[in-house]
Structure to design on (752 residues):
């Protein structure tokens, strides 16, 4: 019979622990939080030191009843949610809800779900850390105050249903600020010049114009570039200096949460949300033949690159056995904290056993799990290996007062790159290029001089990887919140993904402008970073959570009152007047926001209810097709099953049609058009609009470009890491480049 109850968050973790603990322990799952602030009201007693009013989450009644019965029967309860602030708060709520004075509650904290780690936690149980609980309460209360007090202001001024978040809105501001930088950017022209040189042995290499009279050249136009080209052609190139040196490239630290999310996006194209979901699966446990269910990685919410001593000893032994002494450093490689905000509470993300190689687990894991596990395993092993060594040769060539430079880099010793492939690391200049043997004073021959025009580029839009990196650098958010921050601004339609980049929508720009103007303190980057530091102090026991919330609330309440007194003015400011005249009453129509995006509406509402679609990038796309019922133009809209065509005269006419992709059905004698469709599970495919008479279907996005190799009427859009976006013929397997950026955007943006 069981002697104690162990409560975890998820059924998967419960299943894993049950196999470790045996019959002496009964393991149950709470399913996450059991208590939270109510959804129907603010739930914070502002006048009573911001006391939160917790209520039972809907649907958790039966779970609480079952846990209570088990706790009162066994009298001894180990609370084992995840070892972070949120897990500590869950444990505290469980103790408050299940306790009756006779039950002994203890907190278990383990950072990997292995037999050894769990047994160690059971041998060293502790009380609930109220400092961690209070830090989580402070965050929850501040987020609730902002969300429930600012969101109604957005409803009344922009549109109903919008929401504001304390941290998410700052992340949105960063995306919007970047969008404004891009819009204001003015490109500047500049030129580079490369010379093809020949040695006496008739070997060739390229050298770039590096200096003119000892200064970095600034070539601003074609005339200047051509003048320099002619001078280089006429001059005699002579080798001035040859420098050969050895360069080392060290491995990067093991993963923490932010770097794992960045690498998983860049190399696997996993969203931050998907990365954390798969990592959670690896952490909670996977069934491994011969071992049972076991956690494969350490806790995945961490800001530390520190590694446990026993893990380092294990991986060093593995490196020596598998790769030999040349790959093993003489001493342990240590990685220090990167910033003052690093808490260093948990060690870095690593495999729980280095002997569980990706190849040995391939049959036990899903495709997504094996991809992420391989990434974590490779990074962990590589971080304790010797640096890669390169031979770098630099050749400086003089042509009069001009200096040309060529660089060749050859890998001498692969070191950690044996595990972490070269393609995964930043490349050295000239890597993979060896230069011919030359000596100082050698006279060369100029075979060709090529000028190339360039334009300065605006700062790139953020991706999920770079916004997380920027948030971490600014001290905003913590490991447990990065994925939520990004997914929230995407789900609210404040930001969209465009070819992998985060682009602020018209709605996101409007909301950001409104919030920054009226809440300059709360939605300011430095202020939000300071609040994160205050929460860290609460967790460390150095500050009181009520004082932190009160200091936050004072400027917030002042800003809120001033904004509420200007509601009519704010509403007018976001309704931009257009040049489109209402065809019912003659007024100039204004831009408003609805559930499906911006549209034009008559300012005479409610007397005049006329609306029109807003053409262009910020509104529904108007097509050349006309409504079969009323003759009005059809516009592109997006619903739960993907894109479709709708009559622009809605709501007077509610006619809809399938979205055609501009490719004829290839079935002989069909005459139909391919349209976007979705399966019941939401997966996009392309089928004939004459279904069910014609059942032709295609999973990849067709593009109306005939195959030059076999004459097929269309090719399909594909994008791979190796070749990037391209067209592919499914009939003869031919590959073609895309004709234009517009075609890339069209194909990629349609789910192909």
């Amino acid at each position: 019979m069981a002697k104690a109850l162990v409560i975890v968050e998820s059924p998967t973790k419960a299943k894993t622990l049950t196999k470790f603990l045996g019959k002496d322990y009964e393991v149950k799952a709470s399913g996450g939080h059991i208590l939270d602030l109510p959804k129907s009201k603010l739930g914070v007693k502002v006048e009573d030191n911001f006391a939160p009013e917790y209520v039972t989450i809907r649907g958790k009644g039966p779970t609480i009843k079952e846990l209570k019965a088990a706790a009162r029967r066994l009298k001894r309860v180990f609370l084992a949610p995840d070892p972070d602030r949120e897990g500590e708060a869950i444990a505290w709520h469980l103790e408050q809800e299940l306790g009756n004075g006779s039950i002994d509650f203890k907190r278990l904290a383990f950072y990997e779900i292995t037999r050894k780690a769990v047994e160690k936690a059971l041998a060293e149980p502790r009380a609930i850390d109220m400092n961690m609980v209070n830090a989580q309460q402070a965050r929850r209360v501040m987020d609730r105050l902002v969300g429930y007090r600012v969101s109604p202001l957005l409803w009344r001024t922009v549109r109903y249903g919008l929401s504001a978040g304390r941290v998410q809105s700052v992340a949105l501001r960063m995306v919007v600020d970047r969008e404004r930088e891009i819009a204001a950017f003015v490109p500047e022209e500049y030129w580079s010049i490369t010379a093809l040189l020949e040695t006496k042995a008739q070997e060739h290499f390229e050298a770039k114009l590096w200096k003119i009279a000892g200064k970095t050249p600034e070539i601003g136009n074609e005339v200047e570039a051509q003048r320099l080209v002619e001078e280089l052609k006429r001059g005699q190139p002579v080798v001035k200096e040859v420098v050969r040196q050895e360069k080392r490239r060290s491995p990067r630290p093991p993963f923490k949460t932010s770097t794992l999310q960045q690498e998983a996006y860049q190399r696997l194209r996993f969203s931050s949300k998907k990365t954390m979901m798969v990592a959670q699966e690896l952490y909670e446990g996977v069934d491994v033949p011969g071992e049972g269910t076991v956690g494969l990685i350490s806790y995945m919410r961490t800001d530390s690159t520190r590694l446990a001593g026993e893990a380092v000893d294990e991986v060093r032994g593995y490196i020596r056995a598998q790769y030999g002494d040349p790959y093993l450093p003489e001493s342990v490689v240590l990685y220090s904290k990167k910033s003052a905000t690093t808490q260093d509470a948990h060690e870095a993300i690593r495999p729980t056993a280095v002997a569980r190689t990706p190849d040995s687990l391939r049959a036990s894991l899903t495709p997504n799990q094996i991809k992420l596990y391989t990434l974590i395993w490779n990074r962990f092993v590589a971080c304790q290996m010797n640096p890669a060594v390169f031979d770098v040769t630099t050749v400086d060539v003089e042509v009069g007062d001009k200096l040309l430079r060529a660089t060749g880099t050859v890998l001498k010793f692969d070191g950690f790159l044996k595990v972490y492939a070269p393609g995964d690391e930043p490349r050295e200049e000239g890597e993979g290029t060896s230069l011919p043997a030359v000596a100082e004073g050698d006279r060369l021959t100029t075979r060709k001089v090529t000028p190339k025009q360039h334009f300065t580029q605006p700062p790139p839009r953020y991706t999920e990887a770079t916004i997380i990196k920027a948030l971490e650098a600014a001290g905003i958010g913590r490991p447990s919140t990065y994925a939520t921050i990004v997914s929230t601004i995407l789900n609210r339609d404040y930001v969209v993904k465009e070819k992998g980049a985060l682009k602020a929508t018209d709605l996101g720009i409007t909301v950001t402008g409104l919030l920054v103007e009226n809440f300059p303190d709360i939605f300011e980057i430095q202020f939000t970073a300071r609040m994160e530091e205050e929460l860290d102090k609460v967790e460390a026991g150095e500050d009181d959570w009520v004082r932190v919330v009160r200091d936050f609330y004072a400027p917030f309440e002042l800003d809120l009152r001033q904004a509420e007194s200007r509601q009519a003015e704010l509403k007018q400011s976001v309704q931009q007047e257009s040049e489109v005249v209402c065809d019912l009453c003659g007024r100039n129509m204004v831009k408003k926001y609805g559930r499906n995006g911006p549209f034009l509406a008559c300012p005479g509402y409610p007397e005049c209810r006329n609306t029109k679609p807003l053409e262009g990038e910020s509104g529904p796309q108007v097509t050349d097709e006309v409504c079969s019922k009323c003759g009005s133009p059809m516009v592109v809209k997006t619903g739960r099953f993907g894109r479709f065509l709708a009559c622009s005269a809605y709501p007077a006419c509610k006619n809809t049609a399938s979205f055609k992709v501009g490719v004829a059905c290839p079935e002989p004698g069909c005459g139909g058009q391919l349209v976007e469709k979705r399966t019941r599970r939401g997966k996009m495919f392309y089928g004939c609009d004459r279904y069910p008479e014609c059942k032709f279907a295609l999973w990849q996005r067709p593009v109306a470009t005939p195959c030059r190799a076999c004459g097929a009427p269309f090719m399909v859009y594909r994008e791979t890491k190796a070749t990037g976006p391209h067209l592919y013929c499914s009939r003869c397997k031919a590959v073609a480049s895309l004709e234009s950026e517009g075609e890339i955007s069209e194909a990629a943006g349609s789910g192909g």
